[in-house]
Amino acid sequence: MPLDASGSNQIEDLASPRFRCDAVVRYASNDKPSLSSPMTIAEQAAARTYPPFSLSALIKGTFAPKPGQKICILIDLDDPRDVVDFKFLENPDYSIQRNAYEHFHRGLQDGVLDELQLKGGDLIAYKITGGSNLDLPDFAVASDGRELSLEKDVYPNYDIILCISTYSATAPLTAFAKQYRFRGATLHGLNQIILTTGLAVDYDEVSRKGEQLRLGMTRADWVEIDFDCLGQKFTLHLDLGKQEAQKSHGLCRGEEPDVANLPAGEIYYVPTGASGAFPMKYEDGTIGIMHVADGRVQKAELLQGNAETIAAHNAKLESDPATGIIGELGFGTQVLPVSGRDIQDEKILGTIHVATGRDDHLGGHVTPDKFIHAENATHDDILFAPHKTPEINVVQARMLRDGEVKVLIESYEPSDYMTGLIAE
Predict the structure, then answer these.
(1) Global pTM value
(2) Which of 95, 159, 385, 413 is close enough to 351 for a disulfide, judged by CB 3.0 to 4.6 Å?
(3) Which helix or strand (DSSP H or E) is residue 60 part of?
(4) 119-160: pLDDT as tens digits
């Protein structure tokens, strides 16, 4: 069954002094920031107003499509044949897929295709992969009953592909986009909060602010993150090698193949090395210490919770070492409410995430063939945020850049340096 909890429109989870900024960027309906008195990120998100979700505005803003281009929607199901005649709608567990049908497929068919002069609008299902960014199965089924090959019938024949799924498909779709020259977006975990907030913003403005942050964070030598967890302190050192920082900004325009991650809004790097230790909270609530050397997690140690969870992780690290490679470091750039989904919550200003495993979609070299077992070729984000990891505090994140150490985050609070980069 899909791993899905739709959540609600409550944002109290972020209402914490740990998310307070001394100098904040205050957002209103026009998305124009200005410095104001101290407010928590939650207070800023609650004060911000969003226009109603518009599929037309989202597609125009993200893709600027040309008349005559062909678009489709991919969803994942336990049995892809349940897409025929929309049988999956009978299953209440498929809330993500229902949102894809109601807000995207129906939206296209009920006027957006005509408005934007696009073709297609097909709803196509593939089998749930069971892991983040695993390669997609080739077999697929369209809602009219046609059995399809993604590589023969879908990727080469659509200009724009929207993937609204349980698990992220950004990595495999990015690889296929380059091969078949389509553009796309991944919107895994789609729920009502994301629809009404993260997908309702002006992505030209998100891109502009993201570029301001990127320019102030690019070509760093390293980033260090100090953690406090259950009374113990840890530091993770990530070498960046003066690389150009990248931004996820929600724009996927022009002729070049590309896949956007929506909601967007982060600055990220592919570390060239990593060492130290950091705490990680597992899905069952267990907390372990990740011991890092030579760019990867070498061993997990139990701090609190289930020893069997730690043992299973260590067995995986030993049998398939690529699963421990630190493949990403990311910083959120937007003021948004908590959605309960990492795809939006990692984009919130003041949060930070690292990821292990596959990173070829980010420009790294950890491709699926580096894994001993295909089912382990995932890209797994580890998000640090007050609502998700209340036991873990990011005491400070800092970078060395141009010979100076700049503080970026303290206790989930964006520093004056970060907020100053996007202040007008």
Answers:
(1) 0.90
(2) 385
(3) helix 55-63
(4) 999 999 999 999 999 999 999 999 999 999 999 999 999 999
